[in-house]
Amino acid sequence: MDIPPIRRRAWIATSPANAYDLVADVSRMAEWSPNVVKVAYADNVGPRVGAVFTGVNKVGDRVWESTSRVLTAEPGKEFSWEVGDGVVRWTYSFHANTVVTVDWQVLKLLPAFGSTEEELRRFRRFTAKGIEDTLIALAEAQCTR
């Protein structure tokens, strides 16, 4: 069984550099993502390759914590990280006219994702909706500034 990658794009009314700054400040992700409770860099190091951050997520009554490592940190261009020990990769890319692209890819299946094809499809749909909601909230936040 496999989970196909997800890619979503949105236009954000800001510069690529500002959009990068918003996303790379992972402590702000809870402002936009419906499932993120809190995120913080270890030792307040900020967005740089190799930096580690911890996130707390919540869906319904289920709460979990994850540790991530920054893979790319190119201001105005790309910010990516890997969750856990190579479990999931998230990539935010910033393009001209500030089109923000989010790519999500499962690298290693975990039992928490589901054990049947239907459960894995449901997990993917849920994740896609969360990405879409996050991009919408990020865009709306920039439109109301």
Automatic annotation (TrEMBL):
Domain of life of the source: Bacteria
Pfam families named in the record: Polyketide_cyc2
UniProt xrefs under InterPro entries: Polyketide_cyclase/dehydratase, START-like_dom_sf
Protein known as: Polyketide cyclase / dehydrase and lipid transport
Organism: Allokutzneria albata (Kibdelosporangium albatum)
